[in-house]
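In this notation, each integer encodes one residue's backbone shape. One such record reads:

___
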Amino acid sequence: MSFQQNFTAVGDNLALSSIIALIPILYFFWALAIKRMKGHIAGLTTLIVALLTAVLAFKMPAGMAVMSATQGAVYGILPIGWIIITSVFLYKLTVKTGQFDIIRNSVLSITEDRRIQALLIAFSFGAFLEGAAGFGAPVAISAALLVGLGFNPLFAAGLCLIANTAPVAFGAIGIPVIAVEGPTGVPAMEISKMIGRQLPFISFFIPFYLVVIMAGFKKAMEIIPAILVSGVSFALTQYITSNFLGPELPDILSALVSLFAMVIFLKFWKPKTVFRFPGEQEMAATVAFDAAVSSKKQYTKGQVFKAWSPFLVLTGMISLWGVPVLKLALTGHYEGSSAILKVVNSLGHALTFAPEVPALNNKVINTVGDAIAAVYKLEFLGAAGTAILIAAIITKYIMGISWKNWASIFGETLSELKFPILTICSVVGFAYVINASGMSTTLGMALAKTGSLLFPFFAPFLGWLGVFITGSDTSANLLFGNLQKITAESIGMNPILAIAANSSGGVAGKMISPQSIAVACAAAGLAGKESDLFRFTVKHSLFLVALIGIITFLQNTVLSWMIP
């Protein structure tokens, strides 16, 4: 038995079908923002609502709907959940061994100002991790670092999600841009150029916006020189690399340039007043806080290097795992002649599995008449979480802890993350049901009907919706990229602009994506507080996607000379 997707399943009417397709999404918003359910409860009940909508309204066979949910749940465990587990584990290793006290001290030796710490870690370091790995690693690691420095966990998670807006479109070595070339036929380099003429405006703005959220407009103006150094260096590098080198390196190079520019700048400039969060002035008198900031406690360069070494090893491992030719070998798809890579390829092939999803594989037929493959994609060696685990194993030897203690900390991490992982599995399962039933495409087609005047403004909202549903800019581009192209051609809009707008708009949806919320909460120790984090980020998400909509609208009209 097969299932033919029908995007006008309800009353043979696109408008009515799209309203019904919105029900699971609106329910999820209600569950988190209004009802304030715990994340795993909101995720599981949203999955149930999505299953019922798919079966009753979109006529998807119940068995297929359930199996599509299992496909999403498996993806929620690997690679996404695996990244969270290993990231939090690595962070806990540094805490349990006392090394994070030295890390905290070294950051405070650069600056005690919370505003600048957020720019260094949430914005620059987070962007580097996004470029190298993606899939939740940047938010997980950056949020854990900020919490360790003394940031309020909710604030740390929210700031990292918002900061992650700037690099998402070029994340994981440019995969979102490279992937959309396939379904659209538009060269990745052309899409990269166009995104590189949209996102730098947002990247320039994000550091200022972050500090305003943290401390208000006046406090942001106090460190405007540092904000400009951070934003300008990142945005300028992002433009140059995306337009002249391609989509693979904008995040990594922009992040490194921004990070080093800030560190060098801070050697010559300091803010007149040190900003701390309300209540921290009193906290400064306590022994714990004073130990972190007191100039009496000095560490040698060797001690500081040792403390940071887990994250240096992590950076190296994630960067290696992102190298395209090595990634092919790690997943068993390398066909070159290198003897070393052939050995890695053999191991990668042995640890890569793609079993068919029972009762679903090639059973869903899209409107073109093509059967959609459905497999459980299990890449154990190629997963970024495995790179982080190897970094944690190397850290065991650097820190000199026993295997017993190492395993004990790992077990403690698993115990702490059981509910966040359940949340991630349920919300990714919800995304897969939405996609397999055709509901997501129904919503996309409805947005595409906004007309020649309004569509350029709403094109980014399509990408925003796609990332909210799938949690991935890559998936949103694959889902809606060709729809953007077809709609643009039908209304006289440049298709390159529309496809780029899908990716650029998607970056603003990342911070409210259910799986991103679950990842951030897991990393910051906020299990059960997903609703609070969602309420924190949703207004910023809508504001930023509207800005991208305005940029796209202007580039379609008065700024059309910016289109490559």
In short: The mean pLDDT is 84. The beta strands are 3-4, 352-353, 364-365, 371-372, 378-379.
